[in-house]
Amino acid sequence: MSDTVKEQYSTSEKLSIRITLHSKYSTNKQGFGNWIFSNYRIPEGMSVLELGCGTGEMWCGKDDIINRCGKLILSDFSEGMLATAQGNLKEYPGIEYLQIDIQDIPFPDRTFDVVMANMMLYHVPDLAKGLSEVARVLKDSGTFYCATYGENGMMEQVELMFDDFPISSVRNYSFTLQNGKGKLEDFFSKVQTLQYDDALEVTDIEDMIDYIYSLPSWSHIQDLPRDVIRSTLEQHMHNGILRLPKDYGMFIAERPRVNQ
Q1: Could you give the C-alpha distances from 141 to 23, 81, 190, 243, in angstroms and in order?
Q2: What is the DSSP string of 223-251?
Q3: How many Å is the maximal CA-CA distance in the chain?
């Protein structure tokens, strides 16, 4: 991972800011994490690996799935994230925690029934290597679940609000809902795309500003004074609400090619 990404995820603080914004202002009250879990198919006794587990909060309260797993390993490349995940999930002693880089997964071929990697593949420097490793450690009948963002969401909308300023975007489109299927099809025989229906309705603009400051990809906006960011966002509020589209979803990839 790049030094910028390592710094961003060295602790859970900035990620928690982003999770809180979505939890507080999303119009779809099911919640993105709950929706992701609703699409998992994990029969009794399966071996499961999550890559990039982050804070582990999505697993809280998911006793039914956790108890069904014959083996459950939550991993992240960040020791700080793993420590937070262990604290959040301390009531589940059967979960294992490992520091893992997706580009070099330390398990033999055909180890897992299920591998998950949510909202992280766009950070992988050598994505082809990472996906090759996922396909390698999956059993022939295994499934890979991976959530990501699209190219027509809140970040694009916010950047349009700052068109009058001499700033340039550094958006990361290395793995999106629009291009991810083709990249997965290099390693999996069957890939399905699922779209999550949601939006943001932000009423406290300071929360949105904190969100902007939590993302290195918005460093070009962060260079502006906070009061300029605030006034620009406020100009796009209607009846006290800043409405932003969300473009999120996931892929379900099956039948890894390297195992055939």
Answers
A1: 34, 30, 11, 42
A2: TS-HHHHHHHHHTT-BTTBEEEE--EEEE
A3: 57
What CATH number should be reported for the domain holding residue 108?
3.40.50.150
In the prediction, which pLDDT does 215 show? 84
Give me the residue label for tokens 């629009």.
178
- % of the chain with per-residue pLDDT over 90: 82
Q: Measuring CA to CA, which residue among 231, 239, 241, 141 is closest to residue 201?
A: 241
**Which residue type sits at 227?**
D
pLDDT tens digits along 182-211? 999 999 999 999 999 999 999 999 999 999
Query: Quick check: is 174 in a domain?
Result: yes
Summarised one tens digit per residue, pLDDT across range 33-43 is 999 999 999 99
State the total domains in the chain: 1
Could you tell me which residues are beta bridge partners of residue 50? 74, 116
Other Cβ atoms within 10 Å of 90 Cβ, number: 9
User: Per the domain annotation, does 222 fall within a domain?
Assistant: no
Cβ atoms 46, 114 nearer than 8 A: yes
Q: Give residue 165's pLDDT band: very low, low, confident or very high (50, 70, 90).
A: confident
Per the structure, the complete domain to which residue 127 belongs is given by 3-199+245-259
